[in-house]
Design a protein that fits this description.
Helix content: 40-55%
Structural class: alpha/beta
Number of strands: 7
Largest sheet: 5 strands, parallel
CATH topology of the largest domain: Rossmann fold
Shape: rod-shaped
CATH superfamily of the largest domain: SGNH hydrolase
Radius of gyration: 73 Å
Distance between the termini: 183 Å
Order of helices and strands: HHHHHEEEHHEHHEHHEHEH
């Protein structure tokens, strides 16, 4: 067996101890293509072998997720750039390659964190894959705060219909309380015109005016004013009336007594009654059927009006409603040309009541 040349044996051994060295970027292109093209979220290229490089390519693969398929072109490009610009010494090239990978991995890591800020979803290996931004199908329900008592009402909400208030039942209107009727007792002082007919005017006045009550009819047929004055005590004062009606003077005219005497007697009657606290109401003398008596009757009535005014007492004109344009009786009001019929007596009563009502008496 031929002995090998020792020089060739040593050279071969040297080559065997140190296998031919490939460029770092040659195996980077092959390994990066396989690992970066792997499934999303895998351990990445050399997850353990590149531990000394920080995050490593595996970290890049885990963070980049679905970008693994783009690793081959990137690695090939890096290999070409490395062959051109990096030093050719083996150790320097390896160190430079490692530093380059660290820089690239850091860039991918930063990019993945920025992308992951939008949405991070769990990967099949338990990591978080950046860039897998998927909207959550079930959004977090919005919690509506419970309304409190101080919340302002929603202006757009439909107003709650407020029931119309039921009308309160009206209280029955109070009836005006009528003033209590003050009943005043009265005495009628006079002659036959006060005493007749069967239902004379004092009786009718008592029946028709609730404020007046007849307590005595002091009419005596044929009396003059002097005779009427003489019986004031027994026919008037003793009955203590509130009101005294006086009708006298017709017989004075028939007997030819002067008007001054008649007025003097009537004045005495008024003064005496007022002294006893009695309200006096004077009545004018009614007409006669003879026209010759009309002027005398009118003169006496005028004197009675003046007397009443001077004594501040009320008078009632019963002459006017019974007299026609000639100054004499309407025939329907007199039975004999001097005394009243029932209609005449009723007319006198109505005239008195109307006059007192107007005066508020």
């Amino acid at each position: 067996m031929a002995h090998p040349d020792q020089h060739h044996v040593a050279e071969s051994a040297r080559h065997m101890a140190r296998p031919p060295h490939k460029s770092s970027f040659d195996w980077l292109g092959a390994a990066g293509a396989a690992n970066l093209a792997g499934p999303s979220g895998g351990a990445g290229v050399g997850g353990a072998a590149w531990a000394t490089g920080g995050a490593g390519v595996g970290g890049v693969g885990g963070a980049a997720g679905s970008t693994g398929a783009a690793g081959s072109p990137v690695s090939a490009t890096l290999a070409r750039i490395g062959r051109r610009f990096l030093p050719r010494e083996p150790r320097r090239r390896e160190v430079t390659a490692v530093l380059t990978l660290l820089v690239v991995a850091s860039l991918f890591s930063v990019t993945g964190q920025i992308a992951g800020a939008g949405s991070m979803s769990p990967s099949p290996s338990g990591g978080m894959v950046a860039g897998d931004i998927t909207a959550d199908a079930s959004p977090t329900p919005t919690i509506t705060p419970e309304p409190d008592g101080t919340a302002s009402p929603d202006p757009t909400a439909s107003p709650t219909a407020t029931p119309a208030p039921k009308p309160k039942p009206k209280a029955p209107a109070r009836k005006a309380t009528p003033k209590p009727v003050v009943v005043r007792s009265f005495v009628a002082l006079g002659d036959s015109l006060t005493a007749w007919p069967d239902t004379p005017w004092p009786t009718r006045l008592d029946a028709e005016d609730p404020a007046l009550r007849l307590i005595h009819n002091a009419g005596v047929p044929g009396n003059t004013t002097a005779q009427m004055r003489a019986r004031l005590t027994k026919d008037v004062y003793d009955y203590k009336p509130n009101v005294l009606f006086v009708l006298g003077g017709t017989n004075d005219l028939g007997f030819g007594i002067s008007g001054s005497v008649t007025i003097a007697n009537l004045r005495a009657i008024i003064v005496g009654a007022k002294a006893h606290g009695i309200t006096v109401i004077m009545l004018l003398v009614p007409p006669d059927s003879y026209t010759s008596m009309a002027a005398r009757v009118d003169s006496l009535d005028t004197a009675i009006i003046n007397l009443a005014n001077s004594q501040r007492v009320t008078y009632v004109d019963i002459h006017a409603p019974l007299t026609n344009a000639n100054g004499v009786y309407y025939p329907k009001y007199t039975s004999d040309g001097l005394h009243f019929t029932n209609l005449g007596a009723q007319t006198v009563a109505d005239t008195i009541r109307t006059r007192l009502r107007r005066l508020g008496l």
